[in-house]
Amino acid sequence: MALSDGFVERDLASIRLPQWGRVVAAEGVVPWLVVDPAGDAVEPIQRFLRDFVARGNRAGSVRSYAYGLLRWWRWLAAVGVDWDKATSAEVRDFVLWLGRAAKPRSSPRTASAVTAGTVNAVTRKRYLGDQYEPRTVRHGNAVLRSFYEFWIELGGSPLVNPVVLDRRGRRSNEHHNPLAPFRAEGRIRYNPRVPRRTPRAMPDERWNELFAGLRSNRDRAILALGISTGARASELLGVRGSDLDWGEQLVRVCRKGSGAEQWLPASPEAFVWIRLYLAELEPLEPHEPLWWTLRRRDHGDGLRRQPMNYEALRAVFKRVNTLLGTNYSMHDLRHTAALRMSRDESLSIRDVQTILGHAHLSTTADVYLVEDEAQVIRRVQQHLAARGQRIQQAAPAPAAVGYDAGDLSVLFGGTPQ
Question: What CATH number does the domain containing 292 carry?
Fold first, then answer.
């Protein structure tokens, strides 16, 4: 429907993104590229990603940005707009489309079709659904804004960034309180709201069940290391033989964001399981990865083990979750470790920040200095039960005129008088 000001309303329900292009691993400076159907690199994206790498971003971030830009290129192909002619209207409709579209899948769901988008009864965590999450949409908007900022700085098209900020006509930090931290320059106008998620510690009995369901010393070692150090999955998977200090019981990780190396204390139990796991392997060189697949595969050079990757770690959780009827992930171990440390009176919040590798203390405080919902519910239930007992033990009030006290006693669970 066309209006007098030239606005055209797109039928978003009928739009289907074409399978245009793909993200591929590449040799050279830029580890990931977006290529068109002919297999040629998309030049605007390639030049942006090259600058993105030069600014110190790691391969995982490059891959994430490449997929965000590929999705945008497919959207532009579906609506028939060139990348340098896009306006805020295309961004707005793209966000609206993402809010109702289903994510493409390489294969249909099987067993997970029943649980998609539901809440697990044991962990009370929601399973991922088939729609795009608000965080995914916000990340995509941030990718597009930085992409167009890059081209605007080079003097390319368009002249105005289509991913606009919602400043509401005011200058950023116009009435700033000098005692409060500065806010960001402006919220992206079409960013969806993200519900605040409260981290929840895994109860000790659930952790014992999870650990008992593991099938190998390797799995026991990496999970025991995760719940004692609070390190991220990618950080633990990057550990090498030389990153273990057996005497001090420390493990060295490479932080996900900054890439800085940091030694973290681990529990004695974790090092026991690591020792048992290593006893089952051939001797490792100090520079070799610590974690390897249990099965040997032939990739053209004979049967041999492969370094463990994130998909193999997910398979570990998939097996034990199927056994227990849960939906735990490696990040739940990080939350559990962080909440355990934050509730230990001998540790300060600054200690927790250092172990978790947060750049800002506010990140640690805002996320982990919260009351656990399960504990709050348990205390309120105890309060209600105690109050009910006090009421029952109190002397009964005299019956109102016209009512028999014996009949009222029987009605409310007493005995005839």
Answer: 1.10.443.10
